[in-house]
Amino acid sequence: MQTRLKSGISKPKRAFTSTSPNYLDVEPPSFSIASALTPWVAAMKDEYSALHRQGIWTLVPPAPSQNIVGCKWVYKIKRHADGSVSRYKARLVAKGFHQKAGLDYDETFSPVIKPTTVRIILTLAAQFSWPLRQLDISNAFLHGFLKEDVYMAQPQGFIDSAKPGYVCKLHKSLYGLKQAPRAWFERFTSQLENLGFTDYSADPSLFTYKSHNKILYLLLYVDDIILIGTLPSLITNLITKLQQTFELKDFGPLHYFLGLQLQYHETHPRPKAHPYLNPTHFRSLVGALQYLTFTRLDLSFAVNQVCQFMHSPTDTHLVVAKRILRYLKGTLTHGLLFCPSSLTLQAYADANWAGNLDDHHSTSGYVVFLGSTPITWVLEETKHSFSLPLPKQNIGALLPPLQRSSGFEWSSKIWGFFSLDPPLLWCDNLFALALASNPMFHARTKHIEVDYHFIREKVVRRDVVVKFVSTTDQLADILTKCLPSLGFTRLRNNLLLPFRPP
After folding, report:
1. Domain extent for 215
2. 176 three-state secondary structure
3. Where is the Reverse transcriptase Ty1/copia-type domain (predicted)?
4. Of the N and C termini of the chain, which has fewer Cβ atoms inside 10 Å?
Protein backbone atom coordinates (compact mmCIF):
# COMPACT_ATOMS: atom_id res chain seq x y z
CA MET A 1 0.00 0.00 0.00
CA GLN A 2 1.32 3.39 -0.96
CA THR A 3 1.10 5.73 2.03
CA ARG A 4 1.69 9.46 2.29
CA LEU A 5 4.90 8.80 4.23
CA LYS A 6 6.26 6.58 1.46
CA SER A 7 5.32 9.23 -1.09
CA GLY A 8 7.17 11.91 0.86
CA ILE A 9 4.01 13.79 1.79
CA SER A 10 3.95 15.17 5.31
CA LYS A 11 1.71 17.60 7.14
CA PRO A 12 3.42 19.63 9.84
CA LYS A 13 1.79 19.35 13.23
CA ARG A 14 0.38 22.61 14.47
CA ALA A 15 1.68 22.01 17.99
CA PHE A 16 5.28 21.98 16.76
CA THR A 17 5.07 24.96 14.40
CA SER A 18 5.42 28.50 15.68
CA THR A 19 4.41 31.57 13.73
CA SER A 20 5.18 34.95 15.25
CA PRO A 21 2.53 37.58 14.46
CA ASN A 22 3.41 40.78 12.68
CA TYR A 23 3.02 43.42 15.39
CA LEU A 24 2.90 46.15 12.79
CA ASP A 25 -0.43 44.68 11.69
CA VAL A 26 -1.80 43.62 15.11
CA GLU A 27 -1.54 45.36 18.48
CA PRO A 28 1.43 44.22 20.60
CA PRO A 29 0.40 42.76 23.97
CA SER A 30 3.30 44.16 26.01
CA PHE A 31 5.77 47.01 26.25
CA SER A 32 8.76 44.74 25.65
CA ILE A 33 7.45 43.84 22.19
CA ALA A 34 6.35 47.37 21.26
CA SER A 35 9.64 48.94 22.37
CA ALA A 36 11.48 46.95 19.69
CA LEU A 37 9.39 48.40 16.84
CA THR A 38 10.03 51.93 15.59
CA PRO A 39 6.39 52.93 14.81
CA TRP A 40 5.23 51.97 18.30
CA VAL A 41 8.18 53.75 19.93
CA ALA A 42 7.28 56.91 18.03
CA ALA A 43 3.64 56.57 19.13
CA MET A 44 4.68 56.28 22.79
CA LYS A 45 6.93 59.33 22.49
CA ASP A 46 4.07 61.35 21.01
CA GLU A 47 1.76 60.35 23.86
CA TYR A 48 4.38 61.11 26.49
CA SER A 49 5.07 64.53 24.97
CA ALA A 50 1.35 65.34 24.90
CA LEU A 51 1.03 64.45 28.59
CA HIS A 52 3.95 66.72 29.45
CA ARG A 53 2.52 69.63 27.46
CA GLN A 54 -0.77 69.41 29.36
CA GLY A 55 0.98 69.25 32.74
CA ILE A 56 -0.63 65.99 33.82
CA TRP A 57 1.88 65.35 36.62
CA THR A 58 4.95 66.52 38.46
CA LEU A 59 7.64 64.29 39.95
CA VAL A 60 7.78 64.17 43.75
CA PRO A 61 9.74 61.97 46.18
CA PRO A 62 7.81 58.93 47.45
CA ALA A 63 6.41 58.76 50.98
CA PRO A 64 5.16 55.81 53.07
CA SER A 65 1.65 57.32 53.26
CA GLN A 66 1.28 57.39 49.48
CA ASN A 67 -0.69 54.76 47.58
CA ILE A 68 1.31 54.30 44.39
CA VAL A 69 -0.87 53.46 41.38
CA GLY A 70 0.74 51.53 38.55
CA CYS A 71 0.40 52.31 34.85
CA LYS A 72 0.81 50.52 31.54
CA TRP A 73 0.92 51.23 27.83
CA VAL A 74 -2.07 50.23 25.69
CA TYR A 75 -1.69 50.04 21.92
CA LYS A 76 -4.21 50.49 19.13
CA ILE A 77 -3.90 50.49 15.34
CA LYS A 78 -6.12 53.08 13.66
CA ARG A 79 -7.23 51.97 10.21
CA HIS A 80 -8.79 53.52 7.13
CA ALA A 81 -12.13 52.35 5.77
CA ASP A 82 -10.32 49.97 3.39
CA GLY A 83 -8.47 48.30 6.29
CA SER A 84 -5.08 49.89 5.68
CA VAL A 85 -3.14 51.30 8.63
CA SER A 86 -3.83 54.97 9.30
CA ARG A 87 -1.62 55.49 12.35
CA TYR A 88 -0.29 53.78 15.44
CA LYS A 89 -1.76 54.98 18.72
CA ALA A 90 -0.25 54.40 22.17
CA ARG A 91 -2.05 55.49 25.34
CA LEU A 92 -0.76 55.58 28.89
CA VAL A 93 -3.40 54.10 31.20
CA ALA A 94 -3.39 54.15 34.99
CA LYS A 95 -4.12 50.91 36.83
CA GLY A 96 -7.23 52.10 38.61
CA PHE A 97 -7.64 48.79 40.42
CA HIS A 98 -4.68 49.86 42.61
CA GLN A 99 -6.68 52.80 43.98
CA LYS A 100 -8.21 52.73 47.45
CA ALA A 101 -11.61 54.19 48.25
CA GLY A 102 -11.47 57.23 50.51
CA LEU A 103 -7.73 57.65 49.97
CA ASP A 104 -7.18 58.55 46.32
CA TYR A 105 -10.75 58.51 44.99
CA ASP A 106 -14.24 59.19 46.31
CA GLU A 107 -17.15 59.79 43.91
CA THR A 108 -16.94 58.00 40.56
CA PHE A 109 -20.44 58.32 39.07
CA SER A 110 -20.71 60.17 35.76
CA PRO A 111 -24.06 60.73 33.97
CA VAL A 112 -24.73 59.04 30.64
CA ILE A 113 -27.15 60.38 28.07
CA LYS A 114 -30.53 58.66 27.70
CA PRO A 115 -31.48 57.14 24.32
CA THR A 116 -34.87 58.86 24.51
CA THR A 117 -33.16 62.25 24.63
CA VAL A 118 -31.24 61.47 21.44
CA ARG A 119 -34.42 60.51 19.60
CA ILE A 120 -36.21 63.68 20.77
CA ILE A 121 -33.29 65.78 19.53
CA LEU A 122 -33.46 64.12 16.10
CA THR A 123 -37.23 64.61 15.97
CA LEU A 124 -36.86 68.34 16.69
CA ALA A 125 -34.10 68.64 14.09
CA ALA A 126 -36.35 67.09 11.45
CA GLN A 127 -39.39 69.11 12.52
CA PHE A 128 -37.72 72.54 12.41
CA SER A 129 -34.95 71.76 9.86
CA TRP A 130 -32.26 72.58 12.40
CA PRO A 131 -28.62 71.77 11.58
CA LEU A 132 -26.86 68.90 13.37
CA ARG A 133 -23.12 68.92 14.10
CA GLN A 134 -20.91 66.30 15.72
CA LEU A 135 -17.75 67.04 17.70
CA ASP A 136 -15.15 64.96 19.49
CA ILE A 137 -12.88 66.09 22.33
CA SER A 138 -9.33 64.85 21.90
CA ASN A 139 -7.94 63.20 25.06
CA ALA A 140 -11.07 64.23 26.97
CA PHE A 141 -10.21 62.61 30.30
CA LEU A 142 -6.89 64.47 30.44
CA HIS A 143 -8.77 67.77 30.87
CA GLY A 144 -10.38 66.84 34.20
CA PHE A 145 -8.88 68.24 37.40
CA LEU A 146 -8.36 65.88 40.34
CA LYS A 147 -9.61 66.76 43.80
CA GLU A 148 -7.75 63.92 45.50
CA ASP A 149 -4.00 63.32 45.81
CA VAL A 150 -3.17 60.53 43.37
CA TYR A 151 0.36 59.20 42.96
CA MET A 152 1.45 57.03 40.04
CA ALA A 153 4.63 55.20 39.13
CA GLN A 154 6.67 56.63 36.27
CA PRO A 155 5.71 55.13 32.89
CA GLN A 156 7.77 52.24 31.63
CA GLY A 157 10.44 53.32 29.16
CA PHE A 158 10.25 56.99 30.20
CA ILE A 159 11.72 57.00 33.70
CA ASP A 160 13.52 60.26 34.49
CA SER A 161 17.23 59.45 34.70
CA ALA A 162 17.79 62.31 37.17
CA LYS A 163 14.96 61.21 39.48
CA PRO A 164 14.52 57.47 38.95
CA GLY A 165 13.02 56.87 42.40
CA TYR A 166 10.43 59.66 42.21
CA VAL A 167 6.72 59.15 41.57
CA CYS A 168 4.21 61.14 39.53
CA LYS A 169 1.76 63.32 41.45
CA LEU A 170 -1.24 63.66 39.13
CA HIS A 171 -2.85 67.08 38.75
CA LYS A 172 -5.26 66.07 36.00
CA SER A 173 -7.15 62.85 35.44
CA LEU A 174 -5.65 60.04 33.42
CA TYR A 175 -7.35 57.24 31.52
CA GLY A 176 -7.93 54.29 33.83
CA LEU A 177 -8.50 56.25 37.04
CA LYS A 178 -11.81 55.52 38.72
CA GLN A 179 -12.75 59.20 39.00
CA ALA A 180 -11.58 60.15 35.49
CA PRO A 181 -15.07 60.20 33.84
CA ARG A 182 -16.54 62.26 36.66
CA ALA A 183 -13.62 64.72 36.68
CA TRP A 184 -13.96 65.27 32.93
CA PHE A 185 -17.74 65.73 33.17
CA GLU A 186 -17.39 68.33 35.93
CA ARG A 187 -14.71 70.20 33.98
CA PHE A 188 -16.78 70.33 30.79
CA THR A 189 -20.06 71.26 32.51
CA SER A 190 -18.37 74.10 34.40
CA GLN A 191 -17.09 75.43 31.07
CA LEU A 192 -20.61 75.25 29.59
CA GLU A 193 -22.04 77.11 32.58
CA ASN A 194 -19.55 79.90 31.97
CA LEU A 195 -20.85 80.10 28.40
CA GLY A 196 -24.46 80.50 29.58
CA PHE A 197 -25.72 76.91 29.27
CA THR A 198 -28.07 75.27 31.75
CA ASP A 199 -28.43 71.55 32.34
CA TYR A 200 -31.71 69.66 31.95
CA SER A 201 -32.89 68.16 35.25
CA ALA A 202 -34.33 65.00 33.65
CA ASP A 203 -31.09 64.29 31.74
CA PRO A 204 -27.87 65.86 33.10
CA SER A 205 -26.09 65.17 29.79
CA LEU A 206 -28.35 67.63 27.93
CA PHE A 207 -27.49 71.34 28.04
CA THR A 208 -29.54 74.21 26.63
CA TYR A 209 -28.72 77.78 25.71
CA LYS A 210 -31.51 80.29 25.06
CA SER A 211 -31.16 83.92 24.08
CA HIS A 212 -34.20 85.71 22.70
CA ASN A 213 -35.34 83.47 19.81
CA LYS A 214 -32.06 81.58 19.60
CA ILE A 215 -31.93 78.02 20.96
CA LEU A 216 -28.92 75.72 21.14
CA TYR A 217 -28.87 72.15 22.49
CA LEU A 218 -25.73 70.23 23.40
CA LEU A 219 -25.68 66.48 24.03
CA LEU A 220 -22.63 65.02 25.76
CA TYR A 221 -21.69 61.34 25.77
CA VAL A 222 -18.22 61.00 27.33
CA ASP A 223 -16.15 62.79 24.65
CA ASP A 224 -18.73 62.77 21.82
CA ILE A 225 -20.86 65.89 21.38
CA ILE A 226 -23.99 66.59 19.32
CA LEU A 227 -24.92 70.21 18.64
CA ILE A 228 -28.33 71.30 17.37
CA GLY A 229 -29.42 74.91 17.06
CA THR A 230 -31.71 77.29 15.28
CA LEU A 231 -28.85 78.98 13.42
CA PRO A 232 -25.62 77.51 11.96
CA SER A 233 -23.75 80.63 13.08
CA LEU A 234 -24.77 79.94 16.68
CA ILE A 235 -23.17 76.49 16.48
CA THR A 236 -20.03 77.86 14.83
CA ASN A 237 -19.59 80.48 17.56
CA LEU A 238 -19.86 77.83 20.26
CA ILE A 239 -17.26 75.63 18.54
CA THR A 240 -14.89 78.60 18.36
CA LYS A 241 -15.28 79.26 22.09
CA LEU A 242 -14.79 75.59 23.00
CA GLN A 243 -11.63 75.41 20.88
CA GLN A 244 -10.06 78.04 23.11
CA THR A 245 -10.11 75.55 26.00
CA PHE A 246 -10.28 72.07 24.45
CA GLU A 247 -8.77 70.40 21.42
CA LEU A 248 -11.76 69.57 19.20
CA LYS A 249 -12.39 67.46 16.14
CA ASP A 250 -15.26 68.76 14.02
CA PHE A 251 -16.86 65.90 12.06
CA GLY A 252 -19.40 68.18 10.38
CA PRO A 253 -23.02 66.99 10.01
CA LEU A 254 -24.03 64.14 12.30
CA HIS A 255 -23.72 60.74 10.62
CA TYR A 256 -23.00 58.17 13.36
CA PHE A 257 -23.66 58.34 17.09
CA LEU A 258 -24.23 55.56 19.66
CA GLY A 259 -25.09 52.94 17.06
CA LEU A 260 -27.24 55.35 15.06
CA GLN A 261 -26.18 55.70 11.44
CA LEU A 262 -28.00 58.65 9.87
CA GLN A 263 -28.89 59.14 6.24
CA TYR A 264 -30.28 62.45 5.04
CA HIS A 265 -33.13 62.26 2.54
CA GLU A 266 -34.66 65.58 1.59
CA THR A 267 -33.22 67.15 4.76
CA HIS A 268 -34.79 64.45 6.98
CA PRO A 269 -32.33 62.30 8.98
CA ARG A 270 -33.19 58.62 9.17
CA PRO A 271 -31.06 56.45 11.46
CA LYS A 272 -30.37 52.77 11.24
CA ALA A 273 -28.06 50.54 13.25
CA HIS A 274 -25.21 48.48 11.81
CA PRO A 275 -23.28 47.00 14.74
CA TYR A 276 -20.99 44.05 14.11
CA LEU A 277 -22.59 40.72 14.96
CA ASN A 278 -20.56 37.64 15.82
CA PRO A 279 -22.77 34.55 15.38
CA THR A 280 -20.23 32.12 16.84
CA HIS A 281 -20.73 32.95 20.51
CA PHE A 282 -24.26 33.14 21.89
CA ARG A 283 -23.62 35.72 24.57
CA SER A 284 -21.66 37.98 22.26
CA LEU A 285 -24.35 37.66 19.60
CA VAL A 286 -27.24 38.44 21.94
CA GLY A 287 -25.32 41.31 23.50
CA ALA A 288 -24.90 42.84 20.05
CA LEU A 289 -28.58 42.31 19.26
CA GLN A 290 -29.50 44.33 22.33
CA TYR A 291 -27.86 47.40 20.80
CA LEU A 292 -30.07 47.03 17.73
CA THR A 293 -33.19 47.62 19.83
CA PHE A 294 -31.99 51.22 20.16
CA THR A 295 -33.69 51.91 16.81
CA ARG A 296 -35.33 48.58 15.94
CA LEU A 297 -38.23 48.20 18.36
CA ASP A 298 -39.59 45.36 16.20
CA LEU A 299 -36.76 43.20 17.61
CA SER A 300 -37.50 43.98 21.27
CA PHE A 301 -39.73 40.99 22.01
CA ALA A 302 -37.55 38.40 20.26
CA VAL A 303 -34.31 39.75 21.76
CA ASN A 304 -35.94 39.84 25.20
CA GLN A 305 -36.78 36.15 24.87
CA VAL A 306 -33.24 35.02 24.00
CA CYS A 307 -31.76 37.29 26.68
CA GLN A 308 -33.49 35.18 29.33
CA PHE A 309 -31.15 32.27 28.54
CA MET A 310 -27.81 34.06 28.72
CA HIS A 311 -26.71 32.02 31.74
CA SER A 312 -27.24 28.58 30.17
CA PRO A 313 -27.80 28.76 26.41
CA THR A 314 -28.40 25.64 24.35
CA ASP A 315 -28.27 24.83 20.66
CA THR A 316 -31.97 25.64 20.41
CA HIS A 317 -31.38 29.16 21.72
CA LEU A 318 -28.55 29.67 19.24
CA VAL A 319 -30.88 28.63 16.42
CA VAL A 320 -33.41 31.25 17.58
CA ALA A 321 -30.70 33.92 17.73
CA LYS A 322 -29.56 33.06 14.20
CA ARG A 323 -33.17 33.27 13.06
CA ILE A 324 -33.23 36.85 14.33
CA LEU A 325 -30.09 37.47 12.26
CA ARG A 326 -31.77 36.11 9.15
CA TYR A 327 -34.75 38.38 9.74
CA LEU A 328 -32.40 41.30 10.29
CA LYS A 329 -30.56 40.59 7.05
CA GLY A 330 -33.82 40.84 5.15
CA THR A 331 -34.85 44.10 6.83
CA LEU A 332 -31.60 46.08 6.85
CA THR A 333 -33.33 48.88 4.97
CA HIS A 334 -35.84 49.55 7.77
CA GLY A 335 -35.38 52.29 10.35
CA LEU A 336 -36.96 55.17 12.21
CA LEU A 337 -38.07 58.16 10.15
CA PHE A 338 -37.62 61.63 11.60
CA CYS A 339 -39.77 64.06 9.63
CA PRO A 340 -41.84 67.21 10.28
CA SER A 341 -45.21 66.48 11.90
CA SER A 342 -47.45 67.74 14.67
CA LEU A 343 -45.54 67.62 17.96
CA THR A 344 -48.30 65.85 19.87
CA LEU A 345 -47.68 63.09 22.37
CA GLN A 346 -49.47 59.78 22.07
CA ALA A 347 -48.77 56.37 23.55
CA TYR A 348 -49.91 52.79 22.92
CA ALA A 349 -50.04 50.49 25.97
CA ASP A 350 -50.74 46.77 26.14
CA ALA A 351 -50.50 43.89 28.63
CA ASN A 352 -50.28 40.19 27.82
CA TRP A 353 -51.65 38.52 30.95
CA ALA A 354 -49.94 35.21 31.83
CA GLY A 355 -48.69 34.97 28.27
CA ASN A 356 -45.47 33.15 29.11
CA LEU A 357 -46.18 29.44 28.65
CA ASP A 358 -43.23 28.39 30.83
CA ASP A 359 -43.88 30.35 34.04
CA HIS A 360 -47.17 32.16 33.22
CA HIS A 361 -45.64 35.56 33.89
CA SER A 362 -47.30 38.58 32.32
CA THR A 363 -45.69 40.96 29.84
CA SER A 364 -46.49 44.64 29.50
CA GLY A 365 -45.16 47.21 27.09
CA TYR A 366 -45.75 50.61 25.62
CA VAL A 367 -44.45 52.88 22.89
CA VAL A 368 -44.58 56.69 23.05
CA PHE A 369 -44.72 58.86 19.92
CA LEU A 370 -43.69 62.48 19.52
CA GLY A 371 -45.57 63.39 16.38
CA SER A 372 -45.10 60.47 14.00
CA THR A 373 -41.80 59.26 15.48
CA PRO A 374 -41.45 56.66 18.27
CA ILE A 375 -39.16 58.22 20.87
CA THR A 376 -39.27 55.64 23.65
CA TRP A 377 -40.54 52.12 24.17
CA VAL A 378 -40.41 49.68 27.06
CA LEU A 379 -40.97 45.94 27.37
CA GLU A 380 -41.02 44.41 30.84
CA GLU A 381 -42.08 41.14 32.41
CA THR A 382 -44.31 41.16 35.49
CA LYS A 383 -43.65 38.30 37.87
CA HIS A 384 -46.11 36.63 40.26
CA SER A 385 -48.90 37.06 37.74
CA PHE A 386 -51.09 34.46 39.51
CA SER A 387 -51.65 36.91 42.36
CA LEU A 388 -52.55 39.74 39.98
CA PRO A 389 -55.99 39.47 38.36
CA LEU A 390 -56.66 40.41 34.76
CA PRO A 391 -58.22 43.84 35.51
CA LYS A 392 -55.14 44.91 37.42
CA GLN A 393 -52.82 43.83 34.61
CA ASN A 394 -54.74 45.89 32.05
CA ILE A 395 -55.16 49.04 34.10
CA GLY A 396 -51.57 48.71 35.33
CA ALA A 397 -50.29 48.72 31.76
CA LEU A 398 -51.61 52.27 31.37
CA LEU A 399 -49.64 53.71 34.29
CA PRO A 400 -46.02 53.73 32.95
CA PRO A 401 -46.79 55.36 29.58
CA LEU A 402 -49.06 57.87 31.32
CA GLN A 403 -46.26 58.87 33.69
CA ARG A 404 -43.78 59.06 30.81
CA SER A 405 -46.16 61.14 28.66
CA SER A 406 -46.88 63.48 31.56
CA GLY A 407 -43.16 63.95 32.07
CA PHE A 408 -42.66 64.83 28.40
CA GLU A 409 -45.60 67.23 28.51
CA TRP A 410 -44.13 68.98 31.55
CA SER A 411 -40.67 69.18 30.00
CA SER A 412 -41.90 70.48 26.64
CA LYS A 413 -41.43 74.04 27.89
CA ILE A 414 -37.76 73.28 28.44
CA TRP A 415 -37.46 71.85 24.93
CA GLY A 416 -38.97 75.02 23.51
CA PHE A 417 -42.28 73.70 22.18
CA PHE A 418 -45.71 73.39 23.74
CA SER A 419 -48.72 71.42 22.56
CA LEU A 420 -52.25 72.60 23.35
CA ASP A 421 -53.59 69.06 23.05
CA PRO A 422 -53.18 66.71 26.04
CA PRO A 423 -51.28 63.44 25.52
CA LEU A 424 -53.34 60.68 23.92
CA LEU A 425 -53.21 57.16 25.39
CA TRP A 426 -54.48 54.25 23.28
CA CYS A 427 -55.65 51.01 24.90
CA ASP A 428 -57.42 47.94 23.48
CA ASN A 429 -59.07 46.84 26.75
CA LEU A 430 -62.59 48.16 27.34
CA PHE A 431 -62.55 47.34 31.06
CA ALA A 432 -59.40 49.43 31.58
CA LEU A 433 -61.01 52.33 29.70
CA ALA A 434 -64.18 52.09 31.79
CA LEU A 435 -62.21 51.93 35.03
CA ALA A 436 -60.18 54.98 34.03
CA SER A 437 -63.31 57.03 33.25
CA ASN A 438 -66.19 55.64 35.36
CA PRO A 439 -66.04 56.03 39.17
CA MET A 440 -68.92 53.56 39.61
CA PHE A 441 -66.54 50.70 38.95
CA HIS A 442 -64.29 51.61 41.88
CA ALA A 443 -66.47 49.93 44.50
CA ARG A 444 -65.95 46.60 42.75
CA THR A 445 -62.20 47.07 42.24
CA LYS A 446 -60.89 47.63 45.75
CA HIS A 447 -58.23 44.99 45.17
CA ILE A 448 -56.50 47.44 42.83
CA GLU A 449 -54.10 49.71 44.69
CA VAL A 450 -54.75 53.42 45.07
CA ASP A 451 -51.77 54.10 42.80
CA TYR A 452 -53.74 52.93 39.79
CA HIS A 453 -56.53 55.44 40.44
CA PHE A 454 -53.95 58.07 39.59
CA ILE A 455 -54.92 57.34 35.98
CA ARG A 456 -58.54 58.34 36.49
CA GLU A 457 -57.51 61.60 38.19
CA LYS A 458 -55.45 62.49 35.13
CA VAL A 459 -58.37 61.66 32.84
CA VAL A 460 -60.84 63.76 34.87
CA ARG A 461 -58.50 66.77 34.83
CA ARG A 462 -58.00 66.36 31.07
CA ASP A 463 -54.27 65.97 31.58
CA VAL A 464 -54.50 62.91 29.34
CA VAL A 465 -57.09 61.46 26.97
CA VAL A 466 -57.59 57.69 26.98
CA LYS A 467 -59.13 56.19 23.86
CA PHE A 468 -59.92 52.74 22.55
CA VAL A 469 -57.98 51.16 19.71
CA SER A 470 -58.77 47.80 18.18
CA THR A 471 -56.41 44.93 18.86
CA THR A 472 -55.43 44.76 15.20
CA ASP A 473 -54.21 48.38 15.37
CA GLN A 474 -52.57 48.15 18.81
CA LEU A 475 -48.93 49.00 18.01
CA ALA A 476 -47.73 47.90 21.45
CA ASP A 477 -48.68 44.30 20.60
CA ILE A 478 -45.36 43.94 18.79
CA LEU A 479 -43.62 44.39 22.17
CA THR A 480 -45.68 42.06 24.34
CA LYS A 481 -46.48 38.90 22.41
CA CYS A 482 -45.49 36.63 19.57
CA LEU A 483 -47.53 37.55 16.50
CA PRO A 484 -48.27 35.77 13.22
CA SER A 485 -46.30 36.94 10.20
CA LEU A 486 -49.04 39.07 8.66
CA GLY A 487 -49.88 40.86 11.91
CA PHE A 488 -46.22 41.39 12.77
CA THR A 489 -45.40 42.79 9.33
CA ARG A 490 -48.37 45.16 9.41
CA LEU A 491 -47.42 46.60 12.82
CA ARG A 492 -43.75 46.83 11.87
CA ASN A 493 -44.60 48.83 8.76
CA ASN A 494 -46.52 51.29 10.94
CA LEU A 495 -43.50 51.77 13.21
CA LEU A 496 -40.53 51.54 10.83
CA LEU A 497 -40.22 52.70 7.26
CA PRO A 498 -38.05 51.22 4.50
CA PHE A 499 -35.48 53.44 2.84
CA ARG A 500 -33.06 53.27 -0.04
CA PRO A 501 -29.53 52.36 1.11
CA PRO A 502 -26.67 54.66 0.02
Report:
1. 115-140+180-253
2. coil
3. 56-277
4. N
**Total count of domains within the chain:** 3
- Co-location of 159 and 119 in the same domain: no
Q: Which segments of 394-438 are extended strands (E)?
A: 424-427
Is residue 48 domain-shared with residue 87, that is, in the same domain?
yes
Strand partners, 229: 216
Q: How far is CA 105 from the centre of its chain?
A: 26
Question: Are 205 and 219 in contact, with CB atoms under 8 Å apart?
Answer: yes
pLDDT band at 275 (very low <50, low <70, confident <90, very high): very low
* CATH number of the domain to which 431 belongs: 3.30.420.10
E strand or H helix at 322: helix 315-330
Q: Does residue 262 lie within any of the structural domains?
A: no
Q: Answer yes or no: are the C-beta atoms of 115 and 131 closer than 8 Å.
A: no
**What torsion, rounded to 10 degrees, do the Cα atoms 336, 339, 343, 348 define?**
-30
Q: Is residue 474 part of a domain?
A: no
Instruction: Give the CA angle between residues 358, 364, 365 to the nearest 5°.
Output: 130
Say yes or no: 381 and 464 in one domain: yes
Say how many residues make up the chain: 502
* 417 and 381 housed in the same domain: yes
Contact 88, 40 (CB under 8 A): yes
Neighbours of 56 (CB within 10 A): 20
102 contacts 206 by C-beta, under 8 angstroms = no
Do 235 and 158 sit in the same domain of this protein?
Answer: no
For 238-262, how does the pLDDT look when each residue is reduced to its tens digit (9 = 90+)?
A: 999 999 988 888 888 888 777 677 7
Q: Can you spell out the DSSP letters for 440-464?
A: GGGGG-TTS-GGGGHHHHHHHTTSS
Distance CA 270, CA 399 (A): 30
